[in-house]
Amino acid sequence: MWLADKWIDYELLDCSDGEKLERWGNFVLVRPDPQAIWHTPKEHPGWHNFDARYIRSSSGGGKWIENKMPNRWPVGYRNLTFSVSLMNFKHTGLFPEQAANWDYITDKIKSANRQVSVLNLFAYTGAATIAAAAAGASVCHVDAAKGMVLRAKENAVASGLKDDAVRWIVDDCAKFVEREIRRGRKYDALIMDPPSYGRGPSGEVWKLEDSLFDFVKLCSGVLSDNPLFVLINSYTTGLSPGTLTYITSALLGGHAQSRELGLPVKASGLALPCGATCRWE
Predict the structure, then answer these.
(1) 75/25 Cα distance (integer angstroms)
(2) CA dihedral defined by 263, 269, 272, 273, rounded to 10 degrees?
(3) pLDDT at 183 over 90
(4) For labelling alongside 71, which of 13, 90, 151, 217 has CA 20 to 30 A away?
């Protein structure tokens, strides 16, 4: 497991009964987490004295119960700053376990000793984009949701990036990659965080288990002749880390390593598993 254990502005205080108790800067949140299937005692006072809690609805979805939370507040990680908020479906706009990958991205780019171009697909609010750009790479950030790209731009500004550090694209990721292949454009590193399920621009169904192999094969067409890394994230429970390794190794050769990502739990000293990542080099 790769642990995101270097946070200061974030803490996973405890987790139990399908929920996790977290500190985001100065605010304590309670959010659902399907991995926390254990029934350990909820002894931390934050369980009864939180600033906001997301409650699931029996009919689907859910809502935040909050106590005078700001619309946005900053959370820092090393030299990066992100704007977080209470978003729909329990999210805050940031996945703290991904800090383990931000460190990997930063180290790979800084140690390359050359100019590195990065393509970040399904890039959401841009944490990996900003980590890569802050490390000195030129980054192309692609997401189909305009609102998420706008949030990513806010995070870039908060982290002090120059206006031209990132190329911002609102588009379907597969369609964009197809056009980049036709243009002959190449990238030294690929980052992707594809959804478990979704629909394309023409209504076609995306299911990660069925679509990932073909999508990685497509993306291999934009890798440069001297690629640095490919990073694939998965939050699909039925897709094991070993499967990610097999896909990348079969398509790209090279060396791939896949593990779970984890967050240390302050109350127990254990680690909460939070999806999987494949790192190919």
Answers:
(1) 6
(2) 80
(3) yes
(4) 13
- pLDDT above 80 (res 144): yes
pTM for the whole structure = 0.94
Cβ neighbours around 163 below 10 Å, total: 8
The predicted structure's pLDDT at residue 206 = 63
